[in-house]
Specification:
Number of helices: 11
CATH architecture: 3-Layer(aba) Sandwich
Strand content: 15-25%
CATH superfamily: P-loop containing nucleotide triphosphate hydrolases
Low-confidence stretches: none
CATH topology: Rossmann fold
Structural class: alpha/beta
Order of helices and strands: EHEHHEEHHEHEHEHEHHH
């Protein structure tokens, strides 16, 4: 079971979109995926338009449990709990060994090929727990200098965790690429220069179908399977499958 965090300290880089559409691509290949929404915004829940009584917020309470919701064949999710997650985070902020709490509560969840944790763009206790839980991270970088800075910051945080819970950089995804702009080309070149073979070959092009699909409560493959977005996510899926 591969446990992968989608992380960047810059918002709007496409973490949730990549988590959902990568899981959809893997599910289409026969893999079983779980997406854990670690962000109080609850965008995973919003995309699939499903709710649950017990969420990640409940899982982190003493003796907590949560509902694992099936949303598609091969895709299950754990909803964040939205504002409740923020309240729980405050309540556990003083507990000892809280960074291992998520790992402890999920220790019996082992029937998946891939578990994706969709992290918030801010440095939170929940994010730290998720980084202790996952084995690898994927960092989306949109076509802005601030997104590159966000990638550097999340890698610094991973380095701080260090030997306590070693997390490997699986890869950096250049997202929302617009071939018409000089800035996009400059950002991709800079990312490849800095992180070299740790950058996925696949570049996710800016595509209106990707932007539309959450509002339709669909993955890119359901909303527009013939789009550039579906093509790019299929290529990214194949890269992830070939990893390790």
């Amino acid at each position: 079971m591969q446990k992968i965090g989608l992380a960047c300290t810059k918002g709007g880089v496409g973490k949730t979109s990549i988590a959902i559409n990568l899981a959809a691509g893997l599910a289409a290949k026969g893999k079983k995926c779980l997406i854990i929404d670690c962000d109080a915004q609850g965008n995973v829940q919003n995309c699939f338009n499903v709710s649950s009584e017990k969420t990640l917020a409940d899982l982190l309470k003493p003796d907590g449990t949560c509902d694992i919701v099936s949303v598609r064949t091969g895709i299950d999710i754990i909803n964040s709990g939205k504002k409740r997650l923020q309240r729980v985070e405050i309540s556990i902020s003083g507990e000892r060994f809280r960074e291992k709490l998520l790992s402890k509560r999920l220790q019996d969840v082992n029937s998946y090929d891939y578990v994706f944790c969709d992290l918030s763009p801010t440095i939170t206790e929940i994010n730290t727990m998720a980084l202790y839980y996952v084995d690898k991270i994927i960092i989306p970088v949109s076509m802005s200098f601030y997104a590159v800075s966000g990638a550097v910051q999340i890698l610094d945080e991973v380095e701080e965790i260090g030997s306590e819970s070693p997390v490997e950089l699986m890869g950096i995804v250049c997202n929302m690429f617009d071939q018409r702009t000089v800035m996009s080309k400059m950002i991709v070149d800079a990312v490849r220069e800095q992180w070299k073979d740790k950058v996925f070959k696949t570049v996710i092009r800016k595509n209106v179908a990707i932007e539309e699909s959450p509002s339709q409560h669909k993955t890119i493959f359901e909303h527009d399977p013939g789009s550039h977005g579906a093509e790019d996510f299929l290529n990214l899926t194949n890269e992830v499958l070939s990893y390790g």
